[in-house]
């Protein structure tokens, strides 16, 4: 079944028009005709079934036939703040995989040792959108624009806050400290790790230091390991 | 510290010669000189410290100064048999990430619904080698050549055998059935999943069906999720 992302749809609508790009894809590429069935997700938890009413190649009109809100709603909230990798493809890979496995919010943080200071948020968001379509997720993870570490670490967060780093010091395992069904925020540093100053600042701001096992992991693998652990512990 | 992969070294050696390629890298690229320290892994659990004795650009001679066998030996054995993805880059990503997280053996299996029927094992092995160097692992995961599913599923394996599939039927969670510190083998199907015939054949051959959660995962994500779970449950 074909699935489309229609972020502007509301639960009360009986009809919906696909965007120009999606219309073109539906009619020109997939060659859909009147009466063909398809599915829609709105990124806010809505999952819809629909049929093509007018197969216009720029403004395809759909009739909604069924809907479900809070579709596969997650039982916890996970926010990962990650330093974008030098090779941005590695961050893209993380975003795709984390979306498949389960994540709610991602912030890119620019750290002292970050080699990359910026990222194309629009492009990264497209990767997330593509991943939610692939894995049929009705919720679209939120990707925030890049923030400096020092600015981000002072931001208020109502939930458990963790920092994964490779320096010495007391560290916890998520399985021992994570409160299931809650909200958690995990910081993942750049290639070369967080600086000791950054770690101190996080600890002073109520972050707990965690370990992700004994293996030396790349930035994007560490972030995915954290995502995996939180989802697994909430299963 | 620079790390080199020297699969031919044996514990009794006091000296070791780098391959032509590694010599070139050490002397021409890294500009190492006599007396410079470096580290070696042999892929069989040996971790060595050494210094450059003769910085020859084709046959660099090293003196071994310290060694450790069974370096970070894993406490369990994990074999994943995965259908290579249509886009081979996705399989490459899996191999890199699984090596970082922890895996012992990988077999590529060609299934009824596999779109890809072959893969360049040499190239894939290079990716694994690069990943063990990156994550300082002294054991090199073994990558077997591609086998037909029907042939592979009849192969003897002394340990627990699992098949992860998306069809209906009784399925277990690894956390409930995996015996820690043991040997396990997990089958991961192609895009489009295993066929019902393949699933039946696996079940008849002593494989247990498992679920990797409620998310719809791509082939390489499912394989990585399995790898994460087994390592996490053995931590």
TrEMBL record, chains A, B:
GO terms for biological process: rRNA base methylation. Keywords: Cytoplasm, Methyltransferase, rRNA processing, S-adenosyl-L-methionine, Transferase. Residues 18-61 form the Ribosomal RNA small subunit methyltransferase E PUA-like domain. InterPro entries: Alpha/beta_knot_MTases, PUA-like_sf, RsmE, RsmE_MTase_dom, RsmE_PUA-like, tRNA_m1G_MTases_N. GO terms for molecular function: rRNA (uridine-N3-)-methyltransferase activity. The keyword Magnesium does not apply. Pfam families: Methyltrans_RNA, PUA_4. PANTHER family: 16S RRNA (URACIL(1498)-N(3))-METHYLTRANSFERASE, RIBOSOMAL RNA SMALL SUBUNIT METHYLTRANSFERASE E. This is Ribosomal RNA small subunit methyltransferase E. The lineage of its organism: Bacteria, Pseudomonadati, Bacteroidota, Sphingobacteriia, Sphingobacteriales.
